Amino acid sequence: MSAPRTVLVTGASGLLGSAVAALLAGRGHVVRTFQRRPSPAPGTTHVPGSLTDPQAVARAVQGSDAVVHLAAKVSFTGDWNDFAATNIHGTAGLLKAARAAGVRDFVQVSSPSVAHFGSAIAGAPAGRADPARARGHYARSKAAAELLALAEDGPGFRVAAVRPHIVWGPGDTQLVERVLSRARAGRLPLLDRGAALIDTTYLDNAAEAVVRTLERMEHTRGQAVVVTNGEPRPVGELLAGICTAAGVRPPAWSVPGWLARGAGTAIEHAWTAAGRRGWVHDEPPMTRFLAEQLSTAHWFDQRRTRELLDWTPALGIDDGLRRLAEHYQGAR
Amino acid sequence: MVAGGAAAGRSARTLPGVQLWPGVQPWPGVRPGWSRTVEVPSTAACDRPGTVHRWHVLDNGPELQARGVEPAGTLLCVHGNPTWSYLWRSLLAAATDAPASHDSASHDAASHDAAPWRVVAVDQLDMGFSARTGTFRRLADRVGDLGDLTAALGLARRGDPRPVVTVGHDWGGIISLGWALRHREPLAGVVLANTAVHPAGFSLPPALRLALHPAVHGWGTTTTPAFLRVTHALARPALAPAVRAAFMAPYLTPARRAGVGNFVADIPAGPGHPSWPALEEISSGVRTLDVPALLLWGPQDPVFSDRYLRDLLDRLPHADVHRFEGAGHLLPEDRDIASPVLRWLGSTAGSAPPAESAPPAELPVPAGTPEAAGAPGAGTEAEAAPYRALTAELEERRADRTPAIVDMAPLGLARRGTSRGPDPRTLSWAELAADVGALARGLASAGVRPGDRVSLLVPPGIELTTLIYACLRLGAVAVLADAGLGRAGLGRAIIGAGPAWLVGIDRALAGARLLGWPGARISVGPVSGARRRALGVRHTVPELLSAGRRLTAGRDPDPLPAPEPDAEAAVLFTSGSTGPAKGVSYTHRRLAAMRDTLKATYGLQAGSALVAGFAPFALLGPALGATSVTPDMDVTAPRTLTATALARAVAAVDATAVFASPAALANVLATAGDLDSAGRAALGRVSLLLSAGAPIPEPLLARVQELVPRASLHTPYGMTEALPVTDIDLPGIREAGTGNGVCVGTPVAGARVRVLPLSAAGVPGSVPTAGADITGEIVVAAPHVKERYDRLWITQQESASLPGWHRTGDVGHFDAEGRLWVEGRLGHLLTTPEGIRTPVAAEHAAASAPGAGRAAVVGVGPAGTQAAVAVVEAVPPVRRAGPAEPGLAARVRAAVAAGTGIRLAAVLVVPGLPTDIRHNSKVDRTALAGWASRVLAGERAGSP
Questions:
Q1: Does B940 reach chain A within 8 Å, measured CB to CB?
Q2: Which of A116, A119, A191, A197 should one mutate to test binding to chain B, selecting the residue with the greatest count of B CBs within 10 A?
Q3: What is the mean pLDDT of residues A24-47?
Q4: What is the pLDDT of residue A129?
Q5: pLDDT of B68-124, one tens digit each?
């Protein structure tokens, strides 16, 4: 365990951000969080503000030893300028402010999608982020942000990037709740019978890995590591597990992946156009990115990650599903 | 005369037809500095005196010199038509980079000494980037040209001790041999790939005949690049575009292609051709070459097919051969020939004899193992039994009127389905001995010579047994390819073995005729005149028998000389469950040792009687002096053996021993209800039952025990290359219980068994051990292990890389009691992030899960970080392959985790696992892993 430090966690109102903030606070660090809404993490101080506000950013980093940067615009759809403003320029501003404020360590929380170019990934290493080839606005902007951040690594200012892959757990609105609401509505198909093998990360493991990235900065600096549970599963089995844990009927129908990928593109365009006109306000039922995620393998070589972080996941997928079930039983 | 172009320079230089700029590499795989030109005075009759030609060669000599490396010798590489020296670039690279002897101190048992060699790969005149001479150069000119070049290069100078090995492909083969015959002093070996030298009865392959046709020739070879394109398209897999462009580079215009057309026109199609005498001189001269020879062949060559390989083997009988099943004419492009050539050079040609290598030290046998305790039959290295010919028992029983063979379903009768069954046919020892003697003599009179290969496409029974022993008596080599290889596999096996004779039933002869299988055809039964002509039958077995009887009648002729114990006796075939079936060659001595091992292990004494439901052992019946009964069954499908047929066979001769495969026994159990009381009683008298060919599950064996209550139930472990290796009986199986793999018991009499421990990466080491709980590649040393793989020099080298041992490719371990457990195949290891895992125990655990049947466990993803995947046959069966439903997946996952600790990433279900035809049990896990990878990547993969 490292000596207590003052750590700024951005984006700590989200699922992973609040878990990271809580974990750091629990280890005796002074934790400040920076985002619009307060973080539910206990024992942390809230600095309200937005990444796109330079003055608020400067306030937030003041007096911090380290920054864990999770705040980002996450969506399957939306306008590129919004992604660029938050994810690229926001990160650039935060890096600049942190350096100016004498921050020593900076953990950029990134995404494996920054190096995922649409084809299947089977046991691959992290790979280099590539804004030109990453798929979708989110991944492109995050790729650019990761490159910016890692380029700042140097004497006196250490930067590492960590890419947790598909984080889920109790209270998750990004994946679990979406899966469940679609399944409840009968709108969750399996693509190619859910055969694609995918890695995911249980929430607690992801939070631990992010903290380890900071604690092991002398090993992780200048690098990007992908973090997963190291237990790839067919996507259909995972979705069924999540549904079963929540007492929802698992998806039973399958569409061919090629059809969904094609349809996803069309629906995505239609939805974006409709959204501009104010006709719809939710996310489209299928996007090309989502179709790719659900129909092609993406699982990773975790050997280097585990060596660099000196870490293995404490909870397996089945442990996570049990916790999810307990969560929903408690809520019922 | 000499085509334009500046001399080879340091920076920019121009060769005809191609621009080379510094830093630009137009020929992928060719290193800067290899390409050079040489001015060569010509002595050719077709040139005016004083003519000098500029040759282009690829030569690694300067690079070796720059590195300060003294090469072991020179490889003189000669391309054919229409390629150029570019064909040999992989050989140049490997020969340059081979470790020099002084820094190859550490090498494991698997690698031979490969030393650096100088490689001079020439572009023949009018070809590649050598000069366009404007003359028509014939074979004799080209052989002389090559000599002019080597003289100019200072190669093969008189008194120069450095060896030269020629390497030739296509028509470069005969030109290189022509050079070899004129430069015998430095010649240390010849390497040939897909070539031909045969003038007698030389019939041009159809593809070449077309290319030579006046209507096509000029247009196809010169005016257009059609001949080049067609040749390049022969590569399997296809050439990369940049490589194809490099092959095309010297031949971009009709003028530059003149040599290509002339080369084709110089093919001596008949005695009237101007190059015929030169061809004949070389092809007969080849017989006088006694230097080591290596023949590398791509069998999928539409031009230089296997018949030319057989012809070369006839001329160079001592040659080492490797046929690359699936490769074609452009063999150096299709496969890695560089590593085997260098390994071969290190092991044979031109290099100093290898330092006396002591056999590898062996870890001590731990106390308590049967071997250490000297338990009988546990593989102590007993004195090898004195050699006794396989036909010796027959000779001794010439007067014995008791049955030697009983065929429950003789050829030509209804084979199955009749309630009564066909009438059995019996042959006494005296009759068998007489028939074997007569047939051997009849075969000899028909021209079958000792050493000739005779393919026997005859189902088990009296005819097959008589034929096999006649071949053994004569010294001819029985090629035993069985229908269990499948139709395509059977054809590949026969073509690969290249028999001079082919004996078959009608159907086999028709197939041989249709598919062009080699071998003069002999019918096993009588055939009518019209059918005889249609099938191209030269002889029939009844005729040969009669001829032989006439020759021996009334007088005692000079006996046929007995074959040498170490002469080749038979070629058997592996099941081909993982890739094409491999031919396995046995000598008389080794087959005799197999007989002795069976006899000692199972107490099969002369005078006992056995039911032969499993071919390899059954054929040894007459050698053992045991009466053998062939049951009424379709031998191509073991599952057709019924309980009643088995009982009839047992009853026919009061058999005490039964040899059968697990698939046959499964059907015997399924049909046991049809047995009458006499049948049950007959089975009740059986004292030994051997289940061979594949592992048999204990529950199945237990049910067999109920059917043969007084029998001792044994199941041997072995392979076509070593039969048997270990043995275990039913009580032994029960005592062993479950463990990591299948317990196959202890080594049989005369066999030593060890494992080569695996490294963390799954690579076997070189020190054999019998230590407990050490997983490694299983190795066997026994007098009955195969002599060698047939025409698979590389495979043989790998299997025998540890002197004295046969590497089985199986992985397993010994337990504390000295029992061997088989865990899977070396090629089927899972390399997970947690380490090396073996599949068999996990497969048993998966199959034990409710709703799961037979299972295979494979690794998908990159080595070292593979995900473990179970592929199972669901119960009840599924119609479509795909992911298992979550409930089944969870059960299989839990069972495998509990049984082996392996965490499965996924469980897939299939309607049926793909297995080998012969045993219906061996799964090609490598192919299955490929299929699983595609499914789990989200591709549409269908069924495996």
A1: yes
A2: A197
A3: 94
A4: 95
A5: 999 999 999 999 999 999 999 999 999 999 987 544 444 443 444 578 999 999 999
User: Which chain A residues have a beta carbon less than 8 Å from that of B939?
Assistant: 120
Predicted local confidence at residue A252, as pLDDT: 73
- Please tell me which residue in A138, A271, A289, A300 is annotated as part of the active site: A138
Segments making up each domain of chain A, as ranges: 6-164+202-227+299-315
**Rounded Cα–Cα distance for residues B408 and B533 (Å):** 32
Strands B403-407 and B425-428: antiparallel
Give pLDDT, residue B69: 92
DSSP code string of B328-343: BS-HHHHS--HHHHHH
Judged by CB atoms closer than 8 Å, whether chains meet at A303 and B867 is answered as no
3-state secondary structure of B538: strand
How many angstroms away from the CA of B936 is the closest CA of chain A?
A: 5
Pairwise CA distance, residues B653 & B672, whole Å: 20
Among the partner residues A191, A233, A296, nearest to B905 by beta-carbon distance: A233
Angstrom distance (rounded) from CA B209 to CA B198 = 16
DSSP B14-27: EETTEEE-TT--SS
Provide the whole-model pTM.
0.87
Please give the mean pLDDT across all residues of chain B. Answer: 87
Tell me the C-alpha distance between B699 and B695, whole Å.
Answer: 12
Q: What is the Cα–Cα distance from B665 to B662, expressed in whole angstroms?
A: 5
* Residue of chain B minimizing CA distance to A192: B938
Question: Closest by alpha carbon to B788, among B585, B566, B565?
Answer: B585
Range of weakest confidence among B177-186, B481-490, B498-507: B481-490
With CB atoms and an 8 Å threshold, state whether A120 touches B939: yes
The two structure tokens encoding residue A196? 């694609």
Residue A138: active-site member: yes
Lowest model confidence (mean pLDDT) among B99-113, B282-296, B732-746: B99-113
Residues B833, A303: C-beta atoms closer than 8 Å? yes
| Residue B760 sits at the chain A interface (C-beta within 8 Å) | no
Instruction: Specify the CATH number of the domain A6-164+202-227+299-315.
Output: 3.40.50.720
Q: Where are the beta strands (DSSP E) in B574-711?
A: 583-587, 609-612, 627-630, 657-660, 688-691
Share above pLDDT 70 across residues of chain A, in percent, rounded to a whole number: 88
Q: Is the pLDDT of residue B351 over 60?
A: no
Report the percentage of chain B scoring pLDDT > 90: 71
C-alpha span between A130 and A137 (Å, rounded): 12
Whether the CA torsion B687, B689, B690, B695 is positive or negative: it is: negative
Q: Between chains, do B861 and A250 touch, taking CB under 8 Å as contact?
A: no
ipTM, two decimals, is 0.89
Q: Is A268 on the interface with B (CB under 8 A)?
A: no
Per-residue pLDDT band for B371 (boundaries 50, 70, 90) equals very low
In order of their start, the domains of chain B are 28-347 (3.40.50.1820), 829-936 (3.30.300.30)
